[in-house]
Model the fold of this input.
Amino acid sequence: MSGIVLSASVRQNLLSLQSTAELLATTQNDLATGNKVNSALDNPTNYFTAQGLNNRASDIGNLLDAIGNGVQVLQAANTGLTSLQSLVANAQSIANQVLQTAVGYSTKSSVSSTAALGGTSANLVDGTTIKAGDVLAIAGTAGVPAFTITFGASESLAQLNTALAASNLTASLDSTNKLVITTSNDSASSTIGAVTYTNTGGGTATFSAAGSAPVADASSQAIRANLVAQYNNVITQISNTAQDASFNGINLLNGDTLKLTFDETAKSTLSITGVTYNAGGLGLSSLTAGTAFLDNNSANSVLTALTAASTSLRTEASALGSNLSIVQVRQDFNKNLINVLQTGSSNLTLADPNEEAANSQALSTRQSIAVSALALANQSQQSVLQLLR
Done:
């Protein structure tokens, strides 16, 4: 090849044709791949910057699955809380039925004065049997708090009942005008404790040493025992529901902790500490037939525990809702950020198909012109060839 000599014009046109062919090949490659930067050789700055953006988008995209699982964990816990609220409300309804059921005792505990009083309901102090300054004291028992009242000069039955109410007791005058003290419906299952009457004021009244035992009503207690069974069934379901409120092995109602990572450097995180909301965790427990729901006091104590459990559930639901909102916001943020990163990467590397198509057309035209120019440059040599012929 070293023996071949090309004229300057031929050589120049040949170089132009080679350059045009290379540009055309590059343009066609850009059109085929859709990228104007396909490797670091094309544009090192754009290539490595775009690669960094794509890598970050990929890393954040990998976190989206975990964040999505976290949302479902929170949703499962929220569903569990909603069900637990319904079950607690059901238990409250059962306890309220106890308050609406007939008293479980045909005869309640009572204690009476051993002799008729000379006074009336308007003024128990008759000046002889009961005098101002006399003291009535009742020892406390389960369900009947201890009671002490010193009689005034014009003590009425209504005033005495006001004082007795705090000890779940009521007073009345029977047909023989004896003062009878009886447990209220709230403490119908309790027995009045030892009674002491001190004639400090000079009265002569005396009382039985202690109250009589209450007599249970079989029919009423059977109804209450059935309510205990219903209540215990609900308590069992509360524990089962809390146990089942899990997603992918994480249960925020069974003491688990959910930790979520929001960025690729693991510096942006959120830890959500779960609670133990089975029956025991909510301060609830099964009842025993024959000892529970016997009277209003036992029902009210259960209602107090249920009210506290309901408050705990509402508080946790609020906290859970706040955390769910945070996680969903971060989930949407990450999705949008990935789009921003990928768009930025594309702007650095993607080819404009309209521009590349125009370039391709222009280069094709230039190639045709170069071929024609090369042919013209060869005409002088062809003339020489004609002379030699």
Remarks:
- The longest strand covers residues 169-173.
- The mean pLDDT is 83.
- Helices lie at 8-33, 44-100, 157-164, 218-244, 296-349, 353-377, 379-388.
